[in-house]
UniProtKB/TrEMBL annotation:
Keywords: Signal. Residues 33-375 form the Leucine-binding protein domain. The keyword Oxidoreductase does not apply. CDD domains: PBP1_ABC_RPA1789-like (cd06333). It comes from the Bacteria. It holds the Pfam family Peripla_BP_6. PANTHER family: BLR7848 PROTEIN, LEUCINE-SPECIFIC-BINDING PROTEIN. Gene3D superfamilies: 3.40.50.2300. This is Branched-chain amino acid ABC transporter periplasmic protein. Residues 1-29 form the signal peptide. It comes from Caballeronia sordidicola. Belongs to the leucine-binding protein family.
Amino acid sequence: MHSGGEWGAVFRRFAAAGALITCSAAAWAQTPPVKIGLVLSLTGPAASLGIPARDTVALLPKQMGGRPVDYIVLDDASDTTQAVQTTKKLISEDHVDAIIGSSITPNSLAMIDVVADGKTPMISLASSSKIIEPVDARRHWVFKTPQTDAMMASAIAEHASNHGVKTMAFIGQADALGETFYAEVSKFAQLHKIAIVANERFNRTDTSVTGQVLKIIAAKPDAVVVGAAGTPAALPPKTLRERGFKGAIYHNHGTGNRDFLRVCGADCNGTFLPTSPVLVASQLPDDHPAKRLALDYIKVYETKYGAGTVSAFGSYAWDAGMLLNRAVPIAMKAGAPGTPEFRTALRDALENTKNFSDSNGQVNMTPNDHIGLDQRARVIAEIENGKWIYQPR
């Protein structure tokens, strides 16, 4: 039987333990979270790119480096000005540690100066190599997860050459995506001795490209490359088929989602696109470096959103989250989240990513390479009846 003094000692020990638990809970509640801002095209012409990325956010780690993570998702409405304003808000008002976005090239390019001035690392979800090249004082802060337009253009030229294409036409968006993709397509076409016989442009909001398509058909190309992203990219191939074009049609990898397939319909049967391994993961050889993690992402995504819902654009957001999950514990050695020291160390940790596998391949970044993927990160797929069919080279 315990004496009164003994019971008092026991009570004090329990009280002390309870105080420790209370203090620990309070400390956790006061722990500065890692704040990650996302600038995504959730409305407007590029919404089919931004929405899968937003849906992926719900699947990203809730903690990084033992700290809670706050994800702040904002819509840039597929508009460059809005992307800049949104980025400024995330940095100056929300004090985020990193930014993921935007979904499209023009917006990502416009955000570069803002994140550089704010000394905040950014991981773009858009295609153009100009977002990260050359790695100058401004792009020092910028990274990306999607394959570059140069990687994808080389895949198109290689596939076209292997299938006897000698002449090629281009029709692209009248913006940075269209211009930069054309530059890469023409460069790699020349390397494969393919002549460019026509070069046309259209706006994301156009409802007709008949005039451009008639000029292309008059040039009699063996193949046409469409340099566009999202559902607006369905307009040129549909018009080409309506006007009787029988040659090969290649898309930009900005069409790797179900919404594009729905809008383009049967007119896209037999057309090709260079794309993320995620779209054809189950068809890849077992030794492909992206297969296992691509299948893992697909399982997680489709468990939440349903079979057949996955897209390449969600995978780019997933990979950005995984890169940050790796980098945050490293950066915390230099400072706490919310501090300039942490943001700088986070940037440095991203740049020093080595032998890191994600759903699109293996990442090896350097001070001059802020994507780190090699040529295995892109594949050619053929569209058939609403499905992507892997095309071995």
